[in-house]
């Protein structure tokens, strides 16, 4: 038997499109690659530009990025857990996962105005600081006064308060998912011993992220090649043993707990360390609105940035982040223009799906569903 | 990185065209004929067990800017100028490059491998026998750039449509494409026809000689 995935049905030519517009205008395209872990995609892209320009974002921006990267990881793993569960016959967990996703997407909305496609990271920092208030529910036909009051309980304070409240609730939620699945006989029958990949083969097949760690290779860019402030944070890297679907499930569930821990540390730091969130360099980041009102130079800089963009020095870089699905990399070539010369997106799902044939060999057709689920496939990034 | 660079330079003394360390990233330039022995040695002797990425690059429009900026102060710009500068000499000399990104999980380092290919027949040996993950990456580079990989078992298109004509990521392939697809109610089927939308550039491509970057300006092209 032979499995030959046909991909490309979602190919939009993101890389070619990026070559045709100024650097900043492609940040929004990055959200649409892996559309369940939006900010992590943006992160690799802006990091590549920063590396070419030789700039570094302020420390507060780095913490905000880490906070939102980890929030994105939780969002991604919740989506994965729900969908994977649904695929192989566990309905309830899907509903539970989406309940928590809702809160996190509200955080996305509070900070960027969009629930999914945030375009929040910018070269040199993030678009704006965390807001001091959360949007609240209004009384309506469907929600009575009392209900609204209960819903708004955690939304009285700032965004950080809301996230902290979430972080305290979340470990309990993960316990809930685990009671549904971890010792569930049917779940184990569907996943244990399915799609086994040895560590040698995982490397050979180009696996990264949970797919590689599930096979027992301790490799995490956040720890091994730390970017932003990951080297200051305390977290563990879960590693699997057998390299089957069940181990990868356990790895991802533990990653959610670890992400929660990182988020908590970021919140504690962000509370006591105010400061700028974007670089003070008007050649890259726009000046403040207030400056523009009475400073001619600031107005010119703003105009130049939003019409022509900025020119990036000639050269080539590869920047990678530990994306929820694996290593997400951007290889960027610049010839000195205001648009990239070539952008190559290294999507983690691409080599994972390429291994479909090998992983499915000798299994039943029904196991293919479990294997696709365990790969955490999102076609937005594979087809680009 | 510096020590790895020296080690690699020593080991590949005969094969290396150039070896540069730029922005903390190591790039090896080699000739197309050497790809198999160099990759084998990198995997077996330098523990680069993972091929993280493989991609093509088309250098034919490198350094072209849609807008001559130097004369700006003398003449001023014309807003409505033709946006695309013509690409000349696409069929001569080196045009394409294949770029390999390798990762060593054991030693925690990365290296980039670059091979220039000629415009007429861009062909290079496949590395699928060395890293299995090269399979789809090479198909992608073939699909998008028309680079041929000798020894690849199954070099089919991967991302573009069934029956697609051309290699869309080449610089002389228009962004807007060549054909468009629509439903024809008379024939009661989906048909292809020449594209009817006019290409339009909102922001021209500009290269400015920014003196802040003059020192760091590398020679990326080679």
TrEMBL record, chain A:
One GO term in the molecular function aspect is: NADH dehydrogenase (quinone) (non-electrogenic) activity
Enzyme class of the recorded protein, top EC level? translocase
Keyword terms: Cell membrane, Membrane, NAD, Oxidoreductase, Quinone, Translocase, Transport, Ubiquinone
Q: Tell where it localizes.
A: Cell membrane
Cellular component GO terms held in the UniProt record: plasma membrane
Chief location of this protein within or outside the cell = membrane
Gene3D superfamilies attached to this UniProt entry: Cytochrome-c3 Hydrogenase, chain B
Q: What are the residue boundaries of the NADH-quinone oxidoreductase subunit D domain, all occurrences included?
A: 87-384
Q: InterPro entries recorded for this chain?
A: NADH_Q_OxRdtase_suD, NADH_UbQ_OxRdtase_49kDa_CS, NDH1_su_D/H, NiFe-Hase_large
Q: What is its EC number?
A: 7.1.1.-
Q: Which reaction is this enzyme known to catalyze?
A: a quinone + NADH + 5 H(+)(in) = a quinol + NAD(+) + 4 H(+)(out)
Question: How does it sit in the bilayer?
Answer: Peripheral membrane protein
By sequence similarity, the record places it as follows: Belongs to the complex I 49 kDa subunit family.
HAMAP family, alphabetically? NDH1_NuoD (MF_01358)
Q: What does this protein do?
A: NDH-1 shuttles electrons from NADH, via FMN and iron-sulfur (Fe-S) centers, to quinones in the respiratory chain. The immediate electron acceptor for the enzyme in this species is believed to be ubiquinone. Couples the redox reaction to proton translocation (for every two electrons transferred, four hydrogen ions are translocated across the cytoplasmic membrane), and thus conserves the redox energy in a proton gradient.
Subunit description: NDH-1 is composed of 14 different subunits. Subunits NuoB, C, D, E, F, and G constitute the peripheral sector of the complex.
Name of the protein this chain belongs to = NADH-quinone oxidoreductase subunit D
UniProtKB/TrEMBL annotation, chain B:
Enzyme Commission no: 7.1.1.-
Primary enzyme class: translocase
**Where does the record place it?**
Cell membrane
**GO molecular-function terms, A-Z:** NADH dehydrogenase (quinone) (non-electrogenic) activity; NADH dehydrogenase (ubiquinone) activity; quinone binding
Membrane topology category: Peripheral membrane protein
Q: Which Gene3D superfamilies match?
A: NADH:ubiquinone oxidoreductase, 30kDa subunit
NADH:ubiquinone oxidoreductase 30kDa subunit domain location = 29-177
Does Aminoacyl-tRNA synthetase appear among the keywords? no
- Entry similarity comment: Belongs to the complex I 30 kDa subunit family.
Name assigned to this protein: NADH-quinone oxidoreductase subunit C
* Gene responsible for this protein: nuoC1
């Amino acid at each position: 038997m032979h499995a030959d995935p046909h991909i490309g049905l979602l190919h939009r030519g993101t890389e070619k499109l990026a070559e045709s517009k100024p650097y900043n205008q492609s940040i929004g395209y990055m959200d649409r690659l892996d559309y369940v872990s939006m900010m992590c995609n943006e992160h690799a892209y802006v990091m590549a530009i920063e590396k070419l320009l030789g700039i570094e974002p302020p420390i507060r921006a780095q913490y905000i990025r880490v906070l939102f990267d980890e929030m994105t990881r939780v969002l991604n793993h919740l989506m994965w857990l729900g969908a994977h569960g649904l695929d192989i016959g566990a309905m309830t967990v899907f509903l539970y996962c989406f309940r928590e996703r809702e809160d996190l997407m509200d955080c996305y909305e509070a900070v960027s105005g969009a629930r999914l496609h945030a375009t929040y990271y910018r070269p040199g920092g993030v678009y704006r600081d965390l807001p001091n208030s959360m949007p609240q529910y209004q009384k309506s036909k469907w929600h009575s006064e009392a209900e609204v009051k209960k819903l708004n309980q955690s939304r009285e304070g700032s965004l950080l308060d809301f996230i902290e409240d979430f972080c305290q609730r979340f470990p309990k939620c993960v316990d809930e998912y685990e009671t549904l699945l971890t010792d569930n006989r049917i779940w184990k029958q569907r996943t244990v011993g399915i799609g086994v990949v040895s560590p040698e083969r995982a490397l050979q097949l180009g696996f990264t992220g949970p797919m590689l760690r599930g096979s027992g290779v301790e490799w995490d860019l956040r720890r091994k090649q730390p970017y932003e402030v990951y080297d200051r944070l305390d977290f563990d890297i879960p590693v699997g043993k057998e390299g089957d679907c069940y181990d990868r499930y356990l790895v991802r569930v533990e990653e959610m707990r670890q992400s929660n821990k990182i988020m908590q540390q970021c919140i504690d730091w962000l509370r006591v360390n105010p400061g700028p969130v974007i670089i003070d360099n008007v050649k890259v980041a726009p000046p403040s609105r207030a400056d523009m009102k009475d400073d001619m130079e600031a107005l010119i800089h703003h105009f130049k940035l939003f019409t022509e963009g900025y020119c990036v020095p000639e050269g080539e870089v590869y920047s990678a982040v530990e994306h929820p699905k694996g290593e997400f990399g951007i290889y960027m070539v610049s010839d000195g223009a205001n648009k990239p010369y070539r952008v190559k997106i290294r999507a983690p799902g691409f080599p994972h799906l390429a291994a479909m044939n090998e992983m499915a060999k000798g299994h039943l057709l029904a196991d293919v569903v479990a294997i696709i689920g365990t790969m955490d496939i999102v076609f937005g990034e594979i087809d680009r | 990185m510096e020590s790895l660079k020296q080690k690699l330079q020593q080991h590949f003394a005969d094969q290396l065209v150039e070896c540069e360390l730029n922005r903390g990233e190591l790039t090896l330039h080699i000739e197309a004929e050497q790809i198999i022995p160099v990759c084998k040695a990198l995997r077996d002797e330098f523990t680069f067990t993972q091929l993280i990425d493989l991609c093509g690059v088309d250098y034919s429009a490198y350094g072209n800017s849609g807008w001559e900026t130097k004369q700006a102060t003398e003449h001023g710009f014309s807003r409505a100028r033709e946006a695309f500068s013509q690409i000349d000499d696409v069929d001569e000399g080196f045009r394409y490059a294949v770029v390999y990104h390798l990762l060593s999980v054991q030693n925690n380092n990365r290296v980039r491998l670059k091979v220039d290919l000629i415009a007429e027949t861009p062909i290079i040996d496949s590395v699928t026998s060395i890293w299995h993950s090269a399979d789809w990456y090479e198909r992608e580079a073939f699909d998008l750039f028309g680079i041929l990989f000798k020894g690849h078992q199954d070099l089919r298109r991967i991302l573009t449509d069934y029956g697609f004509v051309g290699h869309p990521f080449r610089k002389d392939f228009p962004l807007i494409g060549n054909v468009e697809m629509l439903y024809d109610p008379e024939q009661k089927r989906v048909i292809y026809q020449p594209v009817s939308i006019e290409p339009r550039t909102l922001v021209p491509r500009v290269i400015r000689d920014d003196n802040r970057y003059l020192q760091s300006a590398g020679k990326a092209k080679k």
